[in-house]
Amino acid sequence: MRVSRLMLVTLRDDPAEAEIPSHKLLLRAGYIRRLAPGIFAYLPLMWRVLRKVSRVVREEMDAAGALETLLPQLQPADLWRRSGRWAGYTAGEGIMFHLHDRQDRELGLGPTHEEVVTSLAADLLRSYRQLPVNLYQIQTKFRDEIRPRFGLMRGREFIMKDAYSFHADEACLAQTYAVMDRAYRRIFARCGLRAVAVEADSGAIGGSASQEFMVTADAGEDLILASPDGHYAANQERAQSLAEPAVPLAGGLRAGGAGEPLATPGQATIEQLCAGHGLQASQVVKVLLLLARFEDGHDQPLLVALRGDQQLNEVKLANAVSGRLGAKHGALLEVAALTPDSLKRAGLDPLPFGFLGPQLGDDLLAGGGVAPSFLRLADHTAAELEIFVCGANQPDRHLLGASWSGLGLSVEGVDLRAAQPGERCVHDPRQRLEASRGIEVGHIFQLGRKYSTAMDACFTTEAGSSEPFWMGCYGIGVSRLAQAAVEQHHDGNGICWPLAIAPFEVLVVPANVADAAQAALAGRLYDDLLQAGVEALLDDRSERAGVKFKDGDLLGIPWRVVVGRGAAEGRVELVERSGAGSHELPADDLLAHLLPRVERQRRGLLDG
RNA sequence: CGGGAUGUAGCGCAGCUUGGUAGCGCACUUCGUUCGGGACGAAGGGGCCGCAGGUUCGAAUCCUGUCAUCCCGACCA
Known about the structure:
alpha+beta, BirA Bifunctional Protein, domain 2, YbaK protein, Rossmann fold, 3 domains, eight-stranded mixed sheet, 31 strands, globular, RNA-binding
């Protein structure tokens, strides 16, 4: 390809809409253009990158025995009602674009394809003899993100590879899950990305085991906590750690554990309370009030107890709540803090926030249009406290020396606390968690039988009975991956694509096209490279050399061949974009020198 | 949806406080000089100043409303 024919428009200034380096560079280098929030045109260079990523994904999925397919993006609401996800995905902050057709039928624009593929499987797969099957597709997904961000990182329309596997038993699912795990590691390595696998929350999709693949980069939206020995890594949403032991509270139980009143005027925060009375945060039980909204309209007040020095992990909380009430009330739509304002809106009496204790009665909920009793949850660290300080449920008053039984409460500990960097690891208390940031580019799940049961997707077993499929699902954000590659591979001058996914492999730059010797030699080398099967780009523009060098750096083509002053003597210069080095060599030696290197780099970071 | 900011040429911005002919840099077109790290000179083209009302002799500028975009939180590949 010739640059003069490439529709290349590069920008000298950073567009104001971009925040992170990869987004700025993709815009500046002419790879993408924004059409609306979260909606982008992939310009020809970008499309070449996306096709290369897709090709790697395709090759590895095919090698892992998966079958490529293409499923509809317009999906009938009925299908989603059968899985129970229609309301959760459309109402409230649901992310599915949905519409009515001319017959007034409801349709959704596919944010994911579990429903479609499960109904298809139910149709086609009748016998255990046909299993296992792993179907995948690479296509555009639509999600009405609450806040699209960072270019392709969080778009409302993006390219995804999604795969769904069907099995006769759990062991077979686990086997395919492991095969996908290996395939994913190969995919990211082949694309030249450093990625780490972390334990993850399975979120809205549901299911049991789940693992995310994170491209490490400072601009990543996710916080990863990992042990230095490499044996444990998890998304903070999911991470577990050992909390520091609580400092025992002096003075023992008071009033048989019912606690003695402690005057705490204006001490509404843990810090003020501790400072005022020489207490440690770990000696305090703090209480958070929240309201969980369910699909069926049920509004459930939550009373969450945490040890004073701990933070709530909202993902763990949401899982605990939907685990307890989801079966009865449908999807959990939202969990929000109860505030003085929201209490008033619900028609409830004001509460002494800052002085709440776990013994807060249900009676105050009466007449508020919400469930009449709290769902009471306590984190392990709070439940394990034998003697503690807590709010007295009156302004300016706490209780000293209370215990759970003394307050007349029985609590079961649940993991609700957010693990923090620096805390001890569960698998080895000598290790401490370290934090890093990552961009989630892949996620694999063992879904189990959630969807197949909901949608009545069954097959006949060897014994002749009918059972729902065991399912797995496996996603890769193709367009996100491409941008994540830029985030991981760039410098002050522009992009440094890993060769395996670069739009072109070699850029031939005649320093001065007006120089007949340079133009002729550059043209010859360009032809030779194409002949040799190298994806070459020739910068034939009558620009000054400096402009072409700057643009070349910005574009990030891995190799640059400069045909300049030495052209008359048949000498050219070879520059590797990612390295600082460059060296001169005879033009006749170029192919012999370059080809083995290009071939090696086409394998990305794959060893051997 | 809550909090913050911004809408002026393709991109980046000034002008607005104190109303009076719409500007700068980059990009684009033509000519000349230059030619290995975003050249220089000359000449040009391009604007419903987000939109709608209002105030005024007169509005990019003041007032009201509205829409859009971006940033901070909840969502996810």
